[in-house]
Amino acid sequence: MATLDFYQTHAKDFFNQTINVDMQNVYQPFLENLPSGKQIISDVGCGSGRDSVFFAKQGFQVMAIDGSQNLIELAKQNHPTIDWQCLAFNEIKNQNWHNKFTGIWACASLLHVPFDELPNILNDLLETLKPNGILYASFKYGDSEREKDGRFFCDMNESRWQLVESELPNMKTLKIWQTVDNRKDRQEVWFNILLGN
């Protein structure tokens, strides 16, 4: 709950810090692997809504989900036609979204889920994908769980990911790659994953 409190309290600062970050290098592999046809994207942990707006501008139908109502309210101002939903990760399984999305975008959001809960949350998300759908997720590169400045982080690396992947029976890893933080003042390394069904 402390992590969500952080985003509720610091929504405006977080919004301003992230809304204009150029994510083109990460969008590209996602866009290239989407199935053909009409795209319905779920942006899980949408934060400032930056990526939701990008996908909407590509002509995609977008549902943007975040646990922070304050962030949703700020994000909404940029693109009212997106379907904005205030939901926690563990509430996704209760929605009637089976086979709904062609792509799930979980950029720097699932890193707030404890390692031992991650397979369950991922399997819940994967249930919402259409056949040939894809899921993108990113984590800070590392091998631990930690708290920093009032937020919980679950870091990820290749060996930790293998343990998670072994509990995702209906998916295969299409691509794993590392990137350096796109924010100009950060040098953190990110662990990126693209899954397909």
From TrEMBL:
Which Gene3D superfamilies does the UniProt entry name for this protein? Vaccinia Virus protein VP39
- Does the UniProt entry include the keyword Coiled coil? no
Q: Name one GO molecular function term.
A: methyltransferase activity
Q: Which SUPFAM superfamilies match?
A: S-adenosyl-L-methionine-dependent methyltransferases
Does the record's keyword annotation contain DNA-binding? no
Keywords for this entry? Methyltransferase, Transferase
Residue stretches making up the Methyltransferase domain = 42-133
Q: Where is the signal peptide?
A: none
An example of a Gene Ontology BP annotation on this entry? Answer: methylation
Q: What is this protein called?
A: Methyltransferase domain-containing protein
